[in-house]
Fold this protein.
Amino acid sequence: MNFITIIRDSFMGFVSQIKEINRKYAVPHIKMSPSVRFSLILLRVYLVLLIGILFYKFYTLVK
Amino acid sequence: MNVWANLFYNYRRWWKALKLYLILAGPGIIVMIADNDAGGITTYAATGAKYGYHLLWFLLLLGPIAYFVQEMTVRLGAVTKRGHAEAIFHAFGSFWGWFSLLDLILTDWLTLVTEFIGMTAAMNIFHIPSYITVIVVCILMGAMILQGRYWTWEKIVIIFCAVNLVYIPCAFMVHPSVSDVLSNSFIPHLPPGGFNNEIFFILMANIGTTIAPWMLFFQQSAVVDKGMQVKDIPWGRLDTALGSMFTVFVAMFCIIVTGTVLFGTNVESAAQAAIKLMDINKYVGTLLAIGLFDAGLLGAVCISLASSWAFGEVFGWAHSLNKKVKEAPWFYAFYFLLLISAGAVVLIPGAPLVLITLFVQVIAVTLLPAALVFLILLLNNEEAMGKYKNTLMQNIINITIVAGIIILSTMYGISALFPNMFK
């Protein structure tokens, strides 16, 4: 077994592990009450805004 | 006779309680004292040099805040027996799980680099080259975790935590004005000059060093690895309360040292403060440098473990310090990968260390609100927490704290990106 095969097998093993994790945690187990839903939506908006600011900073730096 | 019998009975009762506490003590004290890491000591040194004793009252306020946030991780870990990363994956699904895990790893790795910056700078004061410091630290940290028992690791770390208290004798050695210290500690006020961009940045930096995302992940995983049960929660609370008291004391005494001796000077790092102090009092300067190294080491120990635990929990690897290398190879491999790669960055000539420090602040800001929101939601999940879920009063306190931290840390992150924004 050469070096490339070992790397490829390790990588494929890692990918299948990630797929397995995604399957295992596909469904959230917390009860999605209105307050939980609202908090998660707010968090998404917050993160989108923050990432937007980061991209803007990056853009102004490159410019 | 009855009096002696009562005294003996009370003595036995307290001695038993103390022995039980000494067995269960650990995660709370360690996480809180490690919170005063290299970045933290730099922040306190700069705070004291810039504003003297004027912000001591603010540090005193941060103690209870740190306690309330970290106490939630004790309950969550003891009741669910899950680390924080696994708890997020389980409750909120893979999207939020991956987001939290990857952000944590990135933040932790960058913070680890800053710990190495602190440690190498401290040892450079004693003319020890950076590469020797990095190698010795990696060997020391490796030896600490490879001995195969969580309990032993924890007690070794507590010895390093005790070294962190070195700032307390340092403060007495510089003879501060006790009346000034007391009045500045208990009467909230702003320094002369009022509120401005500089003071905002310093206040935010102090908050940032008190509540960090890795602390939530570390303490919850440590509670699980230690095997704490629901009945141990009161001891976990006591441990966390004592830890928060120590972390505040260390921070305040560090500020007192630089506030007494270096007030009015510009200090950019703790190492620079130690060098300046050596010219005035070589013992205090030397102790400050030793304290800085110890702070970096404690931070590095906890941060690298927080990441390894989190990865182990999610990937299903064996992830306990009670396991031997053969039993948990990936857990230890990941620990060393983080450690060695972060140490190597510091040795790269011309590495952008200032940029890395800035990045830590900004990326931590993206993780902290998410981690805190998840924490509150998890603690309100009656199915998982049962009678240990947050009470109304705990929710009022914790939601207020979390909302405040989110607003302030966001402003801090933005001000790090756009320094002129709040001028």
